[in-house]
Amino acid sequence: PVTKRLKVLENEEAIKRAVKNVVLTNQGERFYNPLFGGNVTAYLFENFDFLTEFNIKKSITKSLDIYEPRVDVEEVRVKTNDDGNSMEVTIIFTILATNQVSDTTFTIERVR
């Protein structure tokens, strides 16, 4: 209250949620920051191949480097499921405040 600044959360679960929110946000969803987000859902209607997986990994890494300064991305894994029209994304990152390695995994599905 004295400095009028917000406290930066460094809790591991809060950082995992923030990483997931950055990745799952589509560009253009935030009115005053239209470039914010990983824009990963744009790839859901593409054919899943090596190039698509590479572009997804690149997009996730780039968006987290820009919009989540509390983490350093170590690795991004994308496992596609052509039959289920979904992909499982695993992001392994280091929390810079504690030098702790953590990961988060979530599934992105097409909505018909």
Distance between the termini: 47 Å
DSSP strand count: 3
Average pLDDT, to the nearest integer? 87
Shape: globular
- CA radius of gyration is 15 Å
Strand order of the largest sheet: 1-2-3
How would you sum up the major sheet? Answer: 3 strands, antiparallel
Low-confidence stretches: none
Question: Can you characterise this structure?
Answer:
The chain is an alpha+beta fold. The chain has a 3-stranded antiparallel sheet, covered by helices on one side. A hairpin with a 4-residue loop joins β2 and β3. It is globular and about 55 Å long.
Short description:
The protein is α+β, with helices and mostly antiparallel strands.
What topology emerges from the helices and strands here?
Elements: H1 12-24, H2 50-67, E1 71-81, E2 86-95, E3 100-109
Antiparallel strand pairs: 1-2, 2-3
Identify the notable features of this structure and list them briefly.
2 helices; three-stranded antiparallel beta sheet; 112 residues; alpha+beta
